[in-house]
Amino acid sequence: MVLSKMLLLKKVINLRYVVFLTFLLLQNNLIAKDYYVHPEKGNDSNIGTSKGKAFKTLKTISKINLLPGDRVLLASGQTYKNGLIFINKNGTVNKPIIVTTVVWNDHEIFKPAIIDFQDNLNGILIENSSFFNISHIQLTANGFNKPSKNTEMLCGILINNTQAKLMQNIVIENIIIDNVYYEHFGYERGKDEVKTANGTQKYGWGIRVINLTNHKIDNITIKNCTISNVSHTGIKLTGTNKNISNVDIKENAIKKTGGPGIQMSGVKSVQVRNNLVSHSGSQDDSRKWGRGSGLWTWGSSHVLIEKNKFLYANGPGDSAGAHIDFNCDNIVLQYNLSAYNAGGFCEILGNNYNCSYRYNISINDGHRVKGVDGAFQEGKIFWLSGYQGNKKVRKGPVNSYFYNNTIYVNDSIISKIAIDNSSKGILIANNIFYLEGGAKAVLGDQYKPDELSGDLAENVFFKNNLFIDKNNWPEDIGIIDIEPIIGNPEFTNKGGINIEDYLPTNLTLVKNKGIKIPLLQDDKIGLIPTLQLERDILGNMIKGNPSLGAIEP
């Protein structure tokens, strides 16, 4: 009897011990791990979970089954070859997978780890994966070492959905991408390549998000990144049927891209805030495309573009500060500074609905002259186009709101204006047109010029704009301001490059002389979130009637 009790007790103790060990093992597997990589001090036969037992190459990291909360830690200031590949790896909301740089020794000065991916198509690939945070890494690839007919592009970072699953919650921050070219130095593109819609050859890109599936990529943040000298676009979102959504692109610096600075297609609910985009469409390297607006949208919905600087866009076509390509709705540009962009300031192409430029400042935009230096489009300060594709009948934008902008152009430039007569619903009010060189009407010329006819654009509200003289709006454009204001706003420093330079000092002429912006006839939607803003471009409160232009004096 006693022996039986002892055997039973022993079995119970053994069972509890097994349960306890199983619990420990499960807990062990749930504990996030750090994986260290050092290209000089590491060894791929190590376990990688400490600096003393670090891995050597990024290839080893790509093979690990990363779990929620795991961190991949690269050595500060070190250069790595190939790239990082994350396919079907997932963190969680509270435990994202983290990839970043750490100092190896306390006395080191922090420098981002460098990934030179000349032997790899991507510096970092995130495919069919969610809940990632990538930060403090520098990426470069000055020519691809393994070209083939099947590869078309190099990407600093590629976020790609190829499966029937949701991808979500990816943060890209404090990343440096510089010198990304598919071709090696010395390669020269054909002179007609820049005339194609988006380029037909092989290029290097900064950050790309691609979704060609029926499922979504949702909640992407790209912030505090620096992207320069890529042969095509700095940041590009490519979706279908609005399947890329809730994207926040903020506080990035994008410079000297061969194509556009930022471009998005087939997306919904995107905010682009506080970015600097300079010298898009750069031609300073023969491998660059050489054409591009600071930003442009296509086939997209509900995009807010605010408080950015778009400077020095270059190219023989398009290359505005920021433009709205066709098939978009509810694209709002507000509180931006646009300066010295060859293609112009306001460009809204065909089949767009309820889009707006408001409370922006434009300085010497639209200086390009058709036929000079290979230009096949005129630069324009204001352009509403009927273009919606080469094979479709012209159809102008519907319900375009253009108000409280300040536009300054010096006397060396004749400002060009084009309005397709198929446009329906145009509001132009409370703007300051300070065009020292005068203005003239031109044909819109997106691949083929708009046709002249006796018809006029429908449903026009053109009222209460300030012109420095009557030559600041061409009479033959087809529409005119029915209550223009003529005078000099007396800017504090006309010709300057800062927003504050365009503070009007002629208070009698400008202060509270604006009108409340009405809904256009037959428009039941207006603008998102509202037609009436509470603040101007500098954050000043708008009290009573708004003033003229972008700044409340």
UniProtKB/TrEMBL annotation:
* Residue ranges annotated for the Right handed beta helix domain, each copy included: 212-362
UniProt protein name: Right handed beta helix domain-containing protein
Transmembrane segments annotated in the record for this chain: none
The record's listing under SMART domains reads: PbH1
Pfam families tied to this protein: Beta_helix
| Superkingdom per UniProt | Bacteria
